[in-house]
Design goal:
alpha+beta; Metal Transport, Frataxin, Chain A; three-stranded antiparallel β-sheet; two-stranded antiparallel sheet; 1 helix; 5 strands
């Protein structure tokens, strides 16, 4: 089983952009990213607080 790293929202957004995801919209503390092949994900933005490993799948 793979162990996911602990990331904050800035690091996760950087990784998504590197994987060709584009910011589609942002509303308050959540940003929506979509990939050209149709995949999408929502990233909670809560300052420098870490995103739990359960959300990184």
């Amino acid at each position: 089983m793979t162990t996911w790293p602990t990331l904050n929202s800035t690091e996760l957004i950087r990784a998504l952009k590197k994987a060709d995801f584009q910011l589609v919209r942002q509303k308050r503390s959540h940003a929506r990213f979509e990939h050209p092949d149709g995949r999408s994900t929502t990233v909670p933005i809560h300052g420098s607080q870490d995103i739990g490993r359960g959300l990184l799948r």
